[in-house]
Amino acid sequence: MAVPIKTISTAIAGVGLSGGLGYYYLNNKRTQEPTKSLNTTATVKQNRNSQFYDPRPFKQLTSEEIDSRLRAGQIVNKSSIQRVKAIYTTRMASNNPVEDNYSINTIDGNKLIAGVYDGHIGPNCSEMIKTQLPIYVARQLRESTKEGEAQQRKEDIISTAFETLDQDIQQRFYDLFPKNVAGVTEKQIQDAISKNPNADKIIKEAITGSCACAVYLDGDDLYAANTGDSRVVIIRQEEDGSWTGRRLVEEESPAHPAWRSHMISQHPPNESGAIVQRNRIFGLIAVGGSFGDIMYKVPKEYQMNVLPYIPYEIYSTFARYHHRIVVNYHTPPYLYSKPLVTHHKLEKGDKYVVLGTDGLWDELSWDSVRSTDGDQVSAELMSSWPKDGKDKNAATHLMRQALLYDVVYKNIGKKLPVSDEGLEMSKRLTREPSRRYRDDITITVIELNQEQEKGQHVIQEGSGPIMEPKEVDVSEPRLVKSPNSSWYSGWVWSRL
């Protein structure tokens, strides 16, 4: 398959740039000398005589500055739902702009749907699905209960909603271009894009990607759905007073042995060595399911006849590695949006439901992000809330404790208990570029009511802005007009 000069030149430029930066870093690292801390806002470099020397500078923060940064993204949602006291959320950026998003909504006034969305390559897809996914789920639930129709399992209804949304994201993209792209020119592609005033938005939402982890609560029935590598954990207090955390649904990740085998099984045996490399698809993307990410889903003809000619601002976000997708791209799609879905019946002792993007679980299970250790650690950390009194918002409490969990020398491969919380939190919050040290982190904690607890729950002052969950509007139209549209139509038309 011929590769456009635009793709080759971008890739070469990327290699040259990364090499130059590497040379600059190594030479500067050799000549760095530690400097003394002058005040709380000055840049600090660690003394070479410290147990583990780390030359990366940071800013020493006061306790008030630490609290301000940790609480900047916190909110709390009141609840009128019988089994829910309150819903606490917080978000901390590492990427600029932040790529994580979240949603908290009600369906029919007495059912809760909440989700966290871990975007990548940009925030566009996660921003869109935080609004659209609750609508698609609510619409699918309503359509499934029409009179005279056989009742579907809730798990299947939710799964269909996830898949339908991603099909519509893809179909909007295909609808921008001529139906047969096998022989199109660059000018034809660009002319087609210029005819649609929303083309840039549509393309960005299809090219960028996002994982999605959501829960739907109807009475005592809790459904958890996961596309990608975020996580939802149920935390409970046992009768003996101990605390346990259990993952409700597995992650879709190429690092997960069972999911990796499943992904490889969808393609011919001769592709097995190329699909997953270094626990990433083609050695590039570290998720095993997502919305958007259309460069891993399009028919083959789109790879060379369409993608290199979309607006360069968008193409440049993945141009440096596009050639690595192309050479391995034989039997698409390589990513899917179909979630894993489970059901849990709430029981006595269930205290919290924690949804978190992978940035949280990376902190709690450093040795292996697939480890179940992080599930139990989250329970142990939540067991001290709210009695420790430092953070009134449960999600902020969990974020603070996660950032202080075995992180003293995490960035140089050493793991020790924290002895100076202010010092270590200053490092975690101020080192740049922060993406080298941690990911975006988004946490939602649903505080559950026990059956015997009655009355309106009082939200503590200092929990953050108090909101009310927005009711999902199922009258909102689908992203595409045709009710029968799917990505298959783009596939078929490309061959006509």
TrEMBL record:
GO MF terms, alphabetically ordered: [pyruvate dehydrogenase (acetyl-transferring)]-phosphatase activity
GO cellular component: mitochondrion
InterPro entries per the UniProt record, alphabetical: PP2C, PPM-type-like_dom_sf, PPM-type_phosphatase-like_dom
Pfam families in the cross-refs: PP2C (PF00481)
Classification via CDD domains: PP2Cc
Transmembrane segments: none
Record's signal peptide: none
Domain PPM-type phosphatase residues, every copy: 84-448
PANTHER family named among the record's database cross-references: GM14286P (PTHR13832:SF792), PROTEIN PHOSPHATASE 2C (PTHR13832)
Protein name: PPM-type phosphatase domain-containing protein
